[in-house]
Amino acid sequence: MKVLAAITGLIVAAEGAALGPQEPTALQSVLSLGKSDPWKPPNILLVITDDQDLELDSISYTPLIEKHLRQKGTFFRNHFVTTALCCPSRVSLWTGRQAHNTNVTDVNPPYGGYPKFVDRGFNENFLPVWLQESGYDTYYTGKLFNSHTIHNYASPHVNGFNGSDFLMDPYTYSYLNSTYQRNHEPPVSYEGQHTIDVITDKALRFLDDALEGERPFFVAVAPVAPHSNVDPRDLEKGKIVMTAPIPLERHKNLFPDVKVPRTPNFNPDEPSGASWIRYLPQQNQSEINYNDHFYRSRLRALQGVDELVDSLVSRLEESDQLDNTYIIYTSDNGFHIGQHRLPPGKTCGFEEDIRVPLFIRGPGVPEGYTQESVTTHIDLAPTIFDLAGIPPRADFDGTAIPVQPDFLGARHEHVTVEFWGQAVAEGIYGGIGPDGSTMIPNNTYKSIRLLGEDYNLYYSVWCNNEHELYDLSTDPYQLQNLYPTNARAHKEDGPLMLGRSLKQAIARLDALLLVLKSCQGTTCIEPWKVLHPGDTVRSLRDALDEEYDSFYGVQPPVSFGWCDAGYIVEAEGPQVPLTSRYGVSWDVWV
After folding, report:
1. What is the pTM of this model?
2. How many CB atoms within 10 Å of residue 549?
3. Whether 419 contacts 443, CB under 8 Å
């Protein structure tokens, strides 16, 4: 695939202009030379669920996805989102850019939602538009973004799709009262029908349209399950009430004895976390019982998604297009239920919220394989480009993931995790905000998730300047915050990490976070090169060499001036790190 991308890049550079969407791409023309059958780029089917967990084991309850995708494709064990909230995460997925570069950081205006997506210019500059320009037919059904409503759907219409049928707010999360808006037509209510039945029918019709075309296709299907149910009548009253999802009638009694996994971080005896999480009371038995009900409801709602995937794969098999189609299955963010005493929800930097399922099946993809490389949602648009033979964009903050065994691209050990604004507590016991509401302010933080050969870390700085540091090798449930809270713990004779003191390890982690929290393009992919442009430092272990102690000792720390509801650069402290000088000890230069 890299060779194909290189060929295309040379041709596009020579021609100086992209071909129109109706013409064969230059890549197709080159690869057709001397062949009786012209090379056809692969089709791509993308399925995006809403709020699906990985850490709570939801994928063990979807046998058809297991059959079609996990057994016939590759499971990416270490796949992360970079913002644990649907709209920012989806915009990052569609653009290949971190949320601090899209500046779509919330689900509603002024900091997020569909209006912010349009205002930022992405309606003319995101994945389906690029795919159309490269010769693909594109289709979409289901949830696209929050605040995409029955009132603003035409202001403007979403670009980039040959055919579309979007779920519309305020009915997006109403399982039995959904409203969809097809192409440029007025919205249509499907009250009384289950939203999964509706989207399955729409997805199969779009897939038929795509299969009848002569060009390669990209079809995206975004069911709302297993997201909480939201009654639009509550929204009209200015309330946000997120209750357990509603499964299809035929699934409502499944898994009667299943409970939330009782991991050590489920409703722990001692508080954990930082900021507002550290003050949550332990849940009582009524809350625990409700959490179990909520969990079962999510698993039941996912059964409709399981059947949806089965229907899509069967249709591809019937058309003889399955072998030339990549199927990508993932979710916009993860989910927690009871971990760290939290009610149902997302928005945190814990594993439950930032790890999500990722399965890829298609030509050349190993079957039944588990890939351990670190991958993120920022990497998905570059990956689709790579699979389609399209040169990567310079503004991608991610890089193509290793879908095939002979992958030659760069990999990284880090994930940039960021969040701004409020946390939302879901369920009937969600009134944990300071005024008894479901909204918790000051949930702004910047963090990094780091996985190397012999380290497994999470480091976070909150907007109130509290810190978290977890070593997941010894503390996989993130219960013991290692960040020093007193002067003694900072001393060199304190606890060690990778053979160095916590003080020295934290200095490296903080400098890496300083780069990543405002990175762009290649600096997001290779952040160590920013700190060490002339050295061979490419990992945390490299950076921990004693020769760099003086250099890291003078780096400006990551800090916030105040907590804000959106990405306000002035609130976020230092933005630019110091840079080492080609292997020369820093103290020579200061």
Report:
1. 0.92
2. 18
3. yes
C-alpha span between 442 and 191 (Å, rounded): 37
Side-by-side strand order, sheet with 369-371: 188-189, 179-182, 163-167, 137-142, 217-222, 43-49, 325-331, 358-361, 74-76, 369-371
pLDDT tens across 254-295, in order?
Answer: 999 999 999 999 999 999 999 999 999 999 999 999 999 999
Token pair belonging to 489 = 């713990």
Annotation marks residue 563 as catalytic: no
Q: Tens digit of pLDDT for each residue in 102-140?
A: 999 999 999 999 999 999 999 999 999 999 999 999 999
Amino acid identity, residue 566? Answer: G
**CB atoms near residue 533 (< 10 Å):** 12
Token reading at 155 = 């202001």
Task: With H, G, I as helix, E, B as strand and everything else as coil, classify residue 133.
Answer: helix
Distance CA 246, CA 251 (A): 10
CA–CA separation, 541 vs 64, rounded Å? 41
Better pLDDT: 16 or 513: 513
Tokens of 583: 């292997």
Whether the per-residue pLDDT at 452 is higher than 50: the answer is yes
* CATH code of domain 40-417: 3.40.720.10
Which pair of tokens denotes residue 61?
Answer: 């309850």
Residue spans of the domains in the chain: they are 1-31, 40-417, 452-588
Instruction: 463-466: list long-range contacts, CB under 8 Å, 24+ apart.
Output: 463/560, 463/562, 463/563, 463/564, 463/571, 464/275, 464/560, 464/563, 465/559, 465/560, 466/274, 466/275
Q: What is the DSSP string of 420-470?
A: -S-EE--STT---STTSSSEES---EEEEEEE-SS-EEEEEEETTS-EEEE
Q: Please count the CA atoms within 13 angstroms of the CA of 167 that sit on its side-chain side.
A: 29
How high is the pLDDT of residue 494? 67
pLDDT for position 5: 36
Please say if the pLDDT value at position 68 is more than 80: yes
- Write out the E strands in 472-558: 496-497, 500-501
* Residue 489 CB neighbours (<10 A): 14
pLDDT at 25: 38
| DSSP-assigned letters across all residues of 170-206 | TSTT-TTS-EEEETTSPPEE-TTS-HHHHHHHHHHHH
- Residues 523-552: what's their mean pLDDT? 95
CB contact at 8 A, 116 and 104: yes
Active-site residue, selected from the candidate residues 86, 348, 519, 524? 86
The whole-number average pLDDT for the span 495-519 is 96
Picking from 525, 128, 80, the residue whose alpha carbon sits closest to that of residue 330 is 80
E strand or H helix that includes residue 49 = strand 43-49
